[in-house]
């Protein structure tokens, strides 16, 4: 396995094209580039040849993932059995992980979270400073590599309520949203 550094914009593009929880960056890139995607890690090729510098330049193309309503419902149900969730540290870690997993599935509609706020509290923002301006004790945390920040200084029950609102605003059934939120 080789490792490369990529800029934040490219990372967000790759993450934004995730079609299932736990999909690797290699699988996403293979799909976007039209290469064969291995069914599991054991079947993945051991080495990937690099393109020749003399090769014809690839034509840019736009790939927009299309999901059916049932596929989108499956995205939420995958959060119920996500094994990586249990590896997160504490309620804050699980809260951020679930928000990040949701962002990666719905990056273009995730800005709906900016409408979720308390009577006198701001829960989401696109900057750490905006959350601190409203509350010095907000404990802002960035949601993965997304451009969004969340106030993590809420009790666990409030985090669950906020997550439920996020999931429902993105089209999740309220019963499934409640089940996911209890995992915090």
Helix tally equals 7
Structural class: mainly alpha
CATH topology of one domain: the name is Replication modulator SeqA, C-terminal DNA-binding domain
Strand content: under 5%
- Low-pLDDT stretches are 41-72
Provide structural commentary.
This protein has 184 residues and is mainly alpha-helical. The chain has a domain at 69-181: Replication modulator SeqA, C-terminal DNA-binding domain, CATH 1.20.1380.10. The protein is 41% helix and 4% strand. The protein is built from 7 helices and 3 strands, in the order H-H-H-H-E-H-E-E-H-H. The chain has a 3-stranded antiparallel sheet, covered by helices on one side. Helix 4 (90-105) packs parallel to helix 6 (156-169). The longest helix is centred in the middle third of the chain and has 16 residues, at 90-105. 24% of the residues are buried.
What are the salient characteristics of this protein?
184 residues; mainly alpha; Replication modulator SeqA, C-terminal DNA-binding domain; three-stranded antiparallel β-sheet; 3 strands; globular
SSE arrangement:
Layout: H1 8-16, H2 25-33, H3 69-80, H4 90-105, E1 124-125, H5 128-134, E2 140-142, E3 149-151, H6 156-169, H7 174-181
Antiparallel strand pairs: 1-3, 2-3
């Amino acid at each position: 396995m080789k490792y490369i550094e990529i800029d934040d914009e490219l990372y967000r593009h790759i993450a934004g094209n995730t079609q299932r929880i736990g999909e690797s960056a290699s699988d996403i890139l293979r799909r976007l580039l039209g290469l064969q995607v291995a069914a599991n890690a054991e079947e993945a090729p051991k080495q990937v040849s690099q393109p020749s510098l003399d090769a014809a330049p690839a034509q840019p193309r736009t790939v927009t993932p299309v999901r059916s309503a049932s596929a989108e419902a499956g995205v939420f149900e995958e959060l119920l059995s996500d094994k990586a969730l249990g590896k997160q540290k504490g309620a804050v870690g699980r809260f951020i992980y679930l928000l990040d997993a949701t962002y990666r599935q719905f990056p273009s509609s995730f800005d709906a979270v900016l409408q979720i706020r308390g009577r006198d509290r701001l829960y989401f923002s696109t900057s750490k400073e905006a959350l601190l301006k409203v509350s010095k004790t907000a404990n802002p945390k960035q949601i993965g590599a997304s451009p969004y920040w969340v106030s993590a200084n809420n009790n666990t029950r409030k985090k669950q309520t906020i997550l439920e609102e996020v999931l429902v605003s993105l089209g999740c059934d309220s019963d499934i949203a409640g089940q996911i939120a209890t995992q915090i």
